[in-house]
Design goal:
The complex is a heterodimer of chains A (about 425) and B (about 400). With about 425 residues, chain A is of the alpha/beta class. Chain A has two domains: about 260 residues, Rossmann fold; about 110 residues, 2-Layer Sandwich (formyl-coa transferase, domain 3). Helix content of chain A is about 35%, strand content about 15%. Chain A has a six-stranded parallel β-sheet. Chain A has a three-stranded antiparallel β-sheet with strand order 9-10-11. Chain A has a two-stranded antiparallel ribbon with strand order 7-8. The longest helix of chain A is centred in the middle third of the chain and has 23 residues. In chain A, about 55% of the residues are buried. Chain B folds into two domains: about 270 residues, Crotonobetainyl-coa:carnitine coa-transferase, domain 1 (Rossmann fold); about 70 residues, formyl-coa transferase, domain 3. Chain B contains 18 helices and twelve strands. In chain B, helix 1 crosses helix 8, helix 4 crosses helix 18 and helix 8 crosses helix 9. The chains are: A alpha/beta (about 425), B alpha/beta (about 400). Chains A and B meet through helix 2, helix 6, helix 7, strand 6 and helix 8 of A and helix 3, helix 7, helix 8, strand 6 and helix 9 of B. Strand 6 of chain A pairs antiparallel with strand 12 of chain B, so a sheet runs across the interface.
């Protein structure tokens, strides 16, 4: 077996993103890039968002920071000072990719926008991530996870119909944006490899969340139907308008089971009824059902309700674990509604070697992280280093551009780094 | 102003033995940027999005009338190959020889059984990139377990964290996690192309949509393994922002969102509401105070928003530095001036569906803009073009080395 290579190991990334863009740099880091997270002197404000290690509110113990800034080195730099700007320009000379989340126009005012920096380094790729994009009527508007989940339309299909729309409680929009930003950045990097030409990549947060809607837009596009939130029900699978339950309460939590047609769906229903029957819980109409004639596209709500009523009663008597074992053994469709605990205990993920115990020597502990997103036969995609402490690599990185320890100390005192 | 008219993936050939969303949407992103993508299906087994999933134009069923197929397959070439026949397998291998990248999302092991596994692919095309994407990955005890994205989104923890605490968890509309896998699939495909550019070698990519989804869950995993807390669904509440919620607006089922992360934003919100007295109200002065009186905060804000349209709230608050938005319906998205400005909805004319729209990418390149100029193919539409023109041209002619 050949050794896998760190694909992007000769690629230097300067990462000026806030929490909306962390994932982009992390993905490049996973693929081996030398990603340098640049913070303000004293540390980024984003180090105060969300939960902390053992609930100790300390910018060096922030769990969101740990989650999406690993595989990066960390330096501090105030680019609003003249000296800071000079240092940045030196760094840019050795940079391949510049990631930033400043409001549109901010870097222009500092003379550090793509037009200026690309004169210095024509091969530079700059990826700018903002809530709405670099131009257009909303370019100066601000975003938050809630705002982007709403403006992308995603929220309109989430939540119970009799309650206000909701967002997923664990913010998702920054994940979508960071992931898409990594796609665009890598495409630009590949293009540069082919042509030698750098360019500016303008990522819109709003547009970045729209794929979370899956195929929902096509209902409006084709038929002017507007998909809406239906709680725990799936819509749009049947031309009769029937809604299908996708979340059932069970003995110790919830299950996802959906009445589907097709070979897998029919098999699943048949085997569920057999299971129910073995427990004496299958009503006659279920036992006598001809699944071969069952057509999900034409099923009526009445028929669905009748099926679901019996299923609902039965699922209340089984545990998540029993259900999971049953679907795995019998090739049925369905999964438990898992929590973080079950994900960490999942046999498949363990067998795939997903988890890595990472030393946090600064905390005197180890923390478990997923080590990879994808398995390549020739590219190493891995967990290389924990997230940086504030200014942890100042000496290392500034040393690389010729600053000695005395100079670094002076810059620190002057609050430049 | 433009240095080049070359598209990013010009000269790259992609063959897709893939159906529904998780595989085809990867190819779509490559096609938007100039790759020649051939989508393979058969009359015996048409793509599931054509065969089983509404919407159909005018609610009339037809293999060439499916909107879900349309949204995942614009700018591709459509061919039919029956992989159950020997001749079909030979033809598939010819297509694989032509391709730089193959994308497949069958159940693990299926392509081997069909006679077009990675080893066979390498035999006809030694530097082929094969991207296999599936639910749980190609290896491991659950690799062969069938599942759809709507199920997997629950196994991956997203469902549990969506909804109100006193209600059942809500699903994330559809096959949410499939599309996370699509993003990671695009990343993997481009990384493999870059690797091949450098080394001349292809490779095999094993992408589990489950593992891609886990990447979106890391903070919840740390919260559990370190602080022993499961993140519970909590409506729109936020542990360190208030107000942070959805509020009713004028009209039928119209809503806005407002998220206030600091006291400056709170002051600005009070001024916009014409309620300066709330600024000094001790119940609302700080975030901890507002968190403690969150129901009252929400009531005050809701009183104001319900007199306005969501658009009015959005403009007024954003113009004054408050993070606010409209809960846009899907209909709203098609009229959104910002998305229009970005050319997000790309019009295409389909022979049976008529004028419809493909989705542009969320990133805009300064020098290599995306180009969407063809609708998703009709079934078998490009058989002649692909089999007679693409294939004999061969990869030697297509590829620059």
């Amino acid at each position: 077996m050949e050794e896998k290579i760190k694909l992007l190991q000769d690629c230097r990334v300067l990462d000026f993103t806030n929490e909306t863009g962390f994932l982009c740099g992390k993905i490049l880091g996973d693929l081996g890039a030398d990603v340098i997270k640049v913070e303000k002197p004293g540390g980024d404000e984003s180090r105060n968002l969300g939960s902390f290690y053992q609930d100790i509110p300390d910018p060096e113990k922030n769990l969101y920071w740990f989650s999406y800034n690993h595989n990066k080195r960390g330096i501090t730099l105030n680019i609003e000072t003249e000296t800071g700007k000079e240092i940045l320009l030196k760094l840019v000379g050795k940079t391949d990719i510049f990631l930033e989340t400043f409001p549109p126009g901010y870097l222009h005012k500092l003379g550090l926008d793509y037009a200026s920096l690309s004169k210095l380094n024509p091969k530079l790729i700059m990826t700018s991530i903002t809530p709405f994009g670099q131009s257009g009527p909303y370019k100066d508007y601000k975003g938050s996870d809630l705002v982007l989940t709403a403006m992308s339309g995603f929220m309109s299909v989430l939540g119970d119909p009799d309650k206000p729309p909701v967002r997923p409680t664990l913010p998702q929009s920054y994940m979508w944006i960071g992931m898409h930003a990594a796609e665009g950045t890598l495409m630009a990097y590949y293009h540069r490899g082919m042509t030698g030409e750098g360019q500016h990549v303008d990522v819109s947060g709003q547009a970045g969340v729209i794929w979370a809607l899956s195929i929902a837009p096509s209902f409006y596009d084709l038929n002017k139907e507007v998909p809406k939130r239906e709680g725990s029900f799936i819509t749009g699978r049947s031309i009769t308008g029937a809604m299908l339950r996708a979340v059932y309460p069970c003995k110790d939590g919830y299950l996802t089971y959906v009445i589907y047609g097709g070979p897998a769906g029919k098999r699943t229903n048949r085997r569920l009824v057999e299971w129910m029957d073995s427990e004496g819980m299958a009503p006659d109409y279920l036992k006598n059902k001809d699944w071969d004639q069952f057509d999900i596209a034409k099923v009526t709500q009445e028929e669905v309700d009748q099926l679901e009523e019996a299923y609902m009663k039965f699922f209340k008597t089984v545990t998540k674990k029993e259900f999971f074992e049953r679907v795995l053994e019998n090739d049925m469709l369905g999964y438990p509604v898992a929590t973080a605990r079950e994900i960490l205990e999942d046999e498949q993920l363990k067998a795939r070697g997903l988890w890595r115990e990472v030393e946090h020597e600064e905390l005197g502990t180890k923390i478990t992280y997923p080590a990879f997103s994808t398995i390549f036969s020739s590219i190493a995609c891995d967990f290389w280093r924990r997230a940086p402490l504030i200014g942890e690599h100042n000496r290392e990185v500034y040393g690389e551009i010729g600053l000695d320890n005395t100079e670094i100390l002076r810059l620190k005192r002057a609050n430049v780094i | 102003m433009m240095d080049t008219t070359r598209q990013i993936f010009e000269g790259i050939n992609v063959a897709e033995f893939a159906a529904i969303a998780a595989g085809p949407a990867i190819g779509k992103h490559l096609a938007d940027h100039g790759a020649r993508v051939v989508h393979v299906e058969s009359y015996e087994r048409p793509d599931g999005f054509r065969a089983n999933y509404p919407p159909y134009k005018g609610n009339q069923y037809g293999l060439n009338r499916a909107g879900s197929f349309g949204i995942c397959n614009n700018n591709k070439y459509g061919v039919t190959i029956n992989l159950k026949e020997k001749e079909g397998v030979d033809l598939a291998l010819e297509l694989i020889e032509w391709a730089d990248v193959v994308i497949e999302n069958f159940t693990p092991g299926t392509i081997n059984k069909l006679g077009i596994g990675y080893e066979e692919m390498k035999r006809v095309n030694p530097d082929i990139i094969l991207l296999s994407t599936c639910n749980q990955g190609q290896t491991g005890p659950h690799a062969l377990h069938p599942g759809f994205g709507s199920h997997l989104s629950s196994l991956c923890g997203f469902t549990y964290m969506t909804g109100y605490p006193d209600r059942l968890p809500c699903i994330l509309y559809g096959p949410y996690v499939d599309h996370v896998g699509v993003g990671y699939g695009v990343i993997a495909a481009v990384a493999a192309l870059e690797h091949r550019r450098r080394t001349g070698e292809g490779q095999f990519i094993d992408l589990a949509q489950y593992e891609a989804g886990v990447q979106f869950m890391i903070p919840a995993l740390l919260e559990y393994s370190i602080n022993h807390r499961v993140i519970e669904r909590d409506g729109n509440r936020h542990s360190f922002a208030a107000p942070h919620n959805t509020y009713p607006c004028k009209g039928d089922d119209r809503w806005c969102v407002i998220s206030v992360f600091n006291d400056e934003e709170w002051k600005a919100l009070c001024k916009c509401m014409g309620r300066n007295e709330l600024i000094s109200d001790p119940r609302f002065k700080t975030i901890p105070a507002r968190k403690e009186h969150e129901d009252e905060v929400d009531k005050e804000v809701g009183k104001w928003t319900s007199r306005l349209t969501a658009e009015e709230v959005f403009k007024k608050l954003q113009d004054n530095g408050v993070k606010a938005g409209i809960v846009q319906t899907i209909e709203d998205l098609y009229a959104d001036p910002q998305l229009k400005h970005r050319g997000f909805w790309a019009p295409v004319d389909h022979p049976e569906i008529g004028r419809c729209h493909a989705e542009g990418p969320p990133f805009a390149f300064s020098k290599t803009p995306f180009k969407i100029d063809r609708p998703a193919p009709m079934i078998g539409e490009h058989n002649e073009l692909v089999f007679k023109t693409f294939l004999p041209a061969g990869k030697k002619k297509q590829r620059r080395d």
